[in-house]
Fold:
Amino acid sequence: MTYTQIAIIAVACAVIFDFYITRSRLLRRRVFWTSYAIILLFQLVTNWWLTSRNIVMYHPDAIIGIRIASAPVEDLLFGFALVLGISTNWIRLGASEKQH
Structure:
């Protein structure tokens, strides 16, 4: 399995978790997209620094080759999945805490 395929699966899992498992539907909220934009800025800077200095390298056969700020686009997919998954879980855990 390639890095691209795993990144796409990660995004799909995060979306399913958000919409169908926790039903928090963060993707429909402006606050999510605002906070994600801020996180994305820092992710791009960090990815650029790590990949442009060859601290982190990717085999060309494992990625599709599109790069943003020197990092493969797949990194943005993983970052998105991570932020969505963690935020959704944070809401879920907060809701279950209120019930106790």
